[in-house]
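Thread: Newbie trying to understand structure tokens

Hi all, I'm a second-year student working on a class project, and my supervisor (Dr. K.) asked me to get a predicted structure for one chain before our next meeting. I've only ever worked with sequences, so writing a 3D structure as a token string is new to me. If someone could post the tokens and maybe explain what I'm looking at, I'd be very grateful. Here's the chain:
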Amino acid sequence: MKAKAGATLEELGLADAPRAFPLAYPGAWPRESGLLAGDRMLPLDRLAHPDRTPVLCVGSNACPGQLRDKMATFGITAPVPMVRCRVTGLGVGVSAHVSRMGYVSAAPVRCPAAVRELVLLWLEAEQLAVIDASEGATLPDGNFVRVRLPVPDVRVELADGTVLPEVFAYANRRGVLHDGSGVPRDHPGQRALLTELLLSSPALRRLLGNTPEEFCARARADAHRCVRGTLLFAREGWVTRSGLEHLFNGQGVPG
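---
Reply by user tm_fold:
Sure, no problem. This is what the structure looks like when written as tokens:
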């Protein structure tokens, strides 16, 4: 369904937030570019917004329901442009941590051969601060770091042919999960991912349950289980580098 003036997120099937429905992660993404204004998606009059910061999404920040809820938590009501874009050189991997929201997040990985459509947010300063905080980017031990993606290694092109000279994304401080050969694995969706991880590790089943539903419930109920689950990923030998670590400086902040 196309976004139209006054269309609600509910009407568009974009209302559910993964923070409330973790097995739905990363949530529904808009099929077309649009302006998120409260609980509505409106048409955009332009794709580029040079007065704002462009932030590329690989996970639930591209879900309007999730983005709306994050902004509402901090009392931010200003609209957010959400723009579909063609991205070359970046893959969507699996973060090597268990989120307090009850899911295992996506994270960007360096992948020269990858070409995919993602969602770009154009954020004002207050909106950027909200997303930074929600990703732990302002904490020395938070899960994600906001990094400036390397140009031209990562190419972000808008539908009108504009190639952006600067784009940011959130990379995982703890690395990403690999596919068994050391190569970062793709994120297949939450239920498929949790099913596979639980089948692969008796220790993970003891900690977070035998089913994806149990995993989500236990993680949401106990922050210590999330920490232990994150450590278990490393002990199982599942973690590798995202290929974006060179973009961090010594303090784990954007370089």
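A couple of things are worth pointing out once you decode it. The helical segments are 9-12, 64-73, 125-134, 190-200, 202-208, 212-221, 223-235. Residues 49 and 138 are 24 Å apart (CA to CA). Feel free to ask follow-ups in this thread.
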